[in-house]
Design goal:
single chain, five-stranded parallel beta sheet, six-stranded mixed beta sheet
C-alpha cells in the first residue's frame, strides 16, 4: 500500500443558499482556492471557475474508509481537479447547473414551446454527479489490481475484444451509466433509428446508414417502401459495373481498359472511403485483388490537390467518380469541372461518358454535366455524408479497386456490429459501453479531448474519419428542443498511429493535460517481418508499445519509485508520472475487410449513443453553413475585384481586418486582373498553348 502523506492544502468555500452553510473542502492538487457560486450577471446559473484548467484526474483525495490510500506525491501541484462534488452540487439548483455552457440565452427556444426536461435535471444524472468523489478517491494503479473488476470491464463480440479496465470507472459507475441510459430512453432511440423513424428532427429525415449494409433479405419499411430493396438494387448495379471495369469489358474512349480511378468528393464522401482504402491497401487478399490498379482521392479545392491526384495518370485509362448528393457542392464541382477539362483536352468531349460516372441523387445535373444517367449510382437523404461509406459513396470506388466480393465482407463486418448494437443487453454491448464511458469522461470528468491511437499503420486514416463522424455529429451547443445544453458535450478527436504518436504528442498525454485514449491493436499483422538475431518480430515490437503505453498512462511512476532508482531529487518532479489517465484497449484478431467494417460501425454507434443520451441531434450539421455563405460573398467580391483590376474596398462590406488580408493576398498575384477567358493549367497536367511551364513565375 502506498504511504499516506498529509499536507496543508487550500480550502474551497461553496456558496449555498442563505439557508445553507457554506461547505469547505480541500482543493486537491494544489492551486488557489476557487469559489463556486452564481455570477451576478449569469443568465444560465452558476459558472464554475476552474482556473483555466481541466481535470487531469491525477490529484488524490482524502481516502474514504476501506479505500486504497493514494500517494499524494503523485499529485501535480500545477494542475487542479474539477470541484463538481456532492457538496457543491447539493448547494446548486439542478435547473441552474451549467458547467462551461455557452451563453446562448438568445437562442431560439423549442419549436413547440414545450419545456422539455434536460437529461441533466434527472435523478440518474445527479447520481453520477454524486458518484464523482468516489472515483476521485481512487487511482487506476489500485483499481487494476481488482481482477473481478477487470473481468467485468472486458467485453468481446465476434473477435472484437474491448478492455475498459483502464478507464476511471467501477462496476458501480457502469450501473449508474446504464441507469442514465435508461432515463434517456437509449434503447428506444436505438430501435427508432433502426426502424427508420425521423429521429433527425431538424431536417425531418430518417437516419438509416445501417440500412446501407443490411442483409439482402431484411425488410425496413419507410414511407411504405422497403429501403433495403433499394439499397441492394444499387449494390447489385455497383457489382455489375465494377466487374465490367475490372475484367476489361468496359473500355475507355480509345479502347483501352480502365486501370486507375480518381474519386472526387469532400467530407464524408472522402474521409470514410479513404479510411477503408488505407485499411485494405496492404491486406494480402485485398492487395492481390487490386494488383495493377490505382485508387486516388481528390477532395481539397486547392489546385495542389488536383496536381497530386492526377500526377502521372493517363486519361485513356482513368475513370473519375464524382460524389455529390446534390451535384452542387462548390468544392467538389469545381474539382469535377477541372478534371473534366483534363480528360476532354486529351480525349474530346465525347470521352466524358466513358471516363466519368457519378454518385448522386440529381440525375438532371449529372446528365447536363455529360455523364450518362445510366452511370449514376443513387443514394438517399436518409444517409448522412459522414455515415455514407457503406453506400455507393464508398462502395463504388472501393469495389472498382478491390472488387465487390471484398467490399461485401466489409459490409458484413459493419452489419455484425449493427446487430450487436441493436440486440445485445447493455451490460454486454460494446458500442453502448464505449459510448457511455466516453460520455462519463466528457460530461462528468470534464476531459475535453480523446486520442485515437491505432497500433496498426493501416488504420492511419481512422482518426481523421472519426474526427468528422464525432465532432460534426456531437459538436452541438443546444439540445433537440433548441435550448442551451446544461453540460459539456462533444470533444476534440485526434490521433496518430503508434509508435509515431509516441514521438509527437505523448509527452502531453503522459505529463500534461489528461487526454483519454483509445488504443487499437491487432493480433496478426497484415505484413509479417522477423529478422534473424532480433528477440521479437517487428509486429511484436509494435504491440509491446501498445500494451506498455496504456499501463504507463494508468499506473504512472511516483517519487518513491524514482528515489529507489537513485534519481536525483532535482529531477524527481520532471520524471514523475501521475498516472490515473484513462484509456480503452481494443484488440482485433487481424485487420481485414470484415474487421474494418466492425471498427467503422463501432465508432458510428458510439457517437449515436452519446447523442441519444445528451438529447442532441447527432445527424445534422448546421455549424458548417455560415462559413459557406461567407465564402460565397468572398467569391463574388474576388471576381469583381479581379475582373475590374482593383483591390477590395470598404464598400465591399468586409471588416477592416478581412479587407487588409484580402488586399495583401491580391497584391501578391502576378496579375491582379484575370486573363481573357481561357483554361490555364500547369503544362505537366495539360500540355497546351495556354499552359504554364514549370519555370514560369505566373501566379493566378
Amino acid at each position: 500500500t502506498a504511504p499516506s502523506v498529509r499536507r496543508s492544502v487550500p480550502v474551497v468555500k461553496t456558496e449555498c443558499k442563505t439557508s445553507e452553510r457554506p461547505v469547505e473542502r480541500p482543493l486537491r492538487g494544489g492551486g488557489e482556492a476557487v469559489m463556486l457560486g452564481r455570477a451576478p450577471s449569469s443568465k444560465l446559473g452558476p459558472k464554475v471557475n476552474i482556473g483555466g484548467s481541466v481535470n487531469n484526474g491525477s490529484g488524490p483525495a482524502s481516502p474514504r474508509k476501506g479505500a486504497p490510500v493514494v500517494d499524494r506525491q503523485q499529485a501535480n501541484p500545477t494542475q487542479t481537479t474539477h470541484l463538481l462534488q456532492r457538496q457543491g452540487v447539493a448547494c446548486a439548483s439542478r435547473k441552474d447547473l451549467s458547467l462551461n455552457a455557452l451563453d446562448m440565452s438568445e437562442a431560439v427556444s423549442s419549436r413547440d414551446g414545450a419545456g422539455h426536461e434536460s437529461i441533466a435535471d434527472t435523478p440518474a444524472w445527479q447520481a453520477l454527479v454524486d458518484h464523482i468523489p468516489e472515483i476521485e478517491e481512487t487511482h487506476l494503479r489500485y483499481l487494476l489490481k481488482d481482477e473481478e473488476r477487470c473481468l467485468r470491464l472486458s467485453l468481446e463480440h465476434n473477435g472484437l475484444y474491448s478492455d475498459f479496465s483502464r478507464q476511471r470507472v467501477t462496476p458501480k459507475t457502469l450501473e449508474l451509466l446504464f441507469d442514465l441510459a435508461k432515463e434517456a430512453g437509449l434503447k428506444e432511440k436505438i430501435e427508432q433509428m433502426f426502424q427508420g423513424e425521423q429521429i433527425n428532427e431538424t431536417e425531418h429525415r430518417s437516419v438509416l446508414h445501417v440500412a446501407t449494409r443490411a442483409d439482402r433479405n431484411q425488410e425496413l419499411i419507410v414511407d411504405g417502401k422497403n429501403v433495403v430493396k433499394d439499397v441492394w438494387t444499387v449494390l447489385d448495379k455497383i457489382k455489375a459495373f465494377s466487374d465490367q471495369v475490372r475484367n476489361g469489358e468496359w473500355l475507355g474512349a480509345t479502347g483501352k481498359p480502365i486501370k486507375d480511378v480518381v474519386a472526387i468528393g469532400i467530407g464524408g464522401s472522402f474521409l470514410g472511403p479513404l479510411f477503408v482504402h488505407t485499411a485494405l491497401r496492404t491486406e494480402p487478399i485485398a492487395a492481390m485483388k487490386a494488383q495493377g490498379r490505382q485508387l486516388r482521392f481528390l477532395a481539397n479545392v486547392d489546385p495542389v490537390d488536383v496536381a497530386r491526384a492526377l500526377h502521372n495518370l493517363n486519361q485513356e485509362t482513368t475513370m473519375v467518380v464524382i460524389i455529390s448528393k446534390t451535384f452542387t457542392t462548390a468544392e467538389t464541382m469545381l474539382n469535377a469541372r477541372t478534371v473534366r477539362k483534363w480528360i476532354t483536352a486529351e480525349l474530346g468531349e465525347s470521352a466524358v461518358s466513358k471516363h466519368m460516372v457519378a454518385v448522386s441523387t440529381n440525375v438532371k445535373l449529372v446528365s447536363q454535366f455529360g455523364i450518362d444517367p445510366d452511370n449514376t449510382f443513387e443514394f438517399w437523404d436518409w444517409v448522412g455524408g459522414r455515415y455514407s461509406v457503406c453506400s455507393a459513396v464508398g462502395m463504388l470506388p472501393l469495389s472498382l479497386q478491390y472488387g465487390f466480393d471484398v467490399m461485401e465482407q466489409f459490409l458484413e463486418g459493419a452489419r455484425d456490429i449493427d446487430q450487436h448494437f441493436l440486440n445485445a443487453p447493455f451490460e454486454k454491448n460494446i458500442p453502448v459501453t464505449l459510448g457511455l464511458v466516453n460520455l462519463w469522461n466528457i460530461s462528468f470528468l470534464h476531459y475535453p479531448a480523446r486520442a485515437i491511437l491505432p497500433y496498426c499503420q493501416a488504420l492511419s486514416k481512422l482518426a481523421p474519419h472519426i474526427q468528422q463522424v464525432s465532432m460534426e455529429s456531437n459538436g452541438k451547443g443546444v439540445g433537440m428542443d433548441g435550448k442551451p445544453l446544461k453540460f459539456e458535450a462533444g470533444q476534440i478527436d485526434f490521433g496518430e498511429p503508434g509508435t509515431n504518436g509516441q514521438h509527437s504528442f505523448y509527452q502531453l498525454i503522459h505529463q500534461g493535460r489528461v487526454i483519454p485514449c483509445d488504443f487499437i491493436g491487432t493480433i496478426k499483422s497484415q505484413q509479417s517481418v522477423y529478422l534473424k538475431g532480433e528477440i521479437v518480430s517487428n509486429h511484436d515490437e509494435l504491440m509491446c508499445n501498445f500494451f506498455a503505453q496504456a499501463d504507463a498512462l494508468a499506473t504512472g511512476k511516483n517519487a518513491v519509485e524514482l528515489r529507489a532508482e537513485n534519481v536525483p531529487d532535482n529531477l524527481i518532479p520532471h520524471k514523475t508520472f501521475t498516472g490515473n489517465r484513462p484509456s480503452t484497449s481494443i484488440l482485433l484478431p487481424e485487420l481485414n475487410a470484415y474487421s474494418t467494417g466492425q471498427i467503422l460501425a463501432l465508432y458510428e454507434a458510439m457517437v449515436a449513443v452519446k447523442g441519444f443520451v445528451w438529447g442532441i441531434n447527432s445527424f445534422d450539421q448546421w455549424g458548417v453553413e455560415l462559413g459557406k455563405v461567407l465564402a460565397s460573398k468572398c467569391r463574388s467580391k474576388m471576381n469583381s475585384a479581379r475582373t475590374q483590376s482593383r483591390l477590395i474596398e470598404t464598400s465591399d462590406g468586409f471588416n477592416f481586418s478581412t479587407t487588409r488580408l484580402l488586399n495583401r493576398y491580391l497584391k501578391g498575384k502576378t496579375f491582379l486582373q484575370y486573363p481573357e477567358p481561357r483554361d490555364v493549367f500547369p503544362c505537366d497536367l495539360i500540355d497546351s498553348e495556354n499552359c504554364i511551364p514549370p519555370d514560369d513565375e505566373t501566379i493566378l
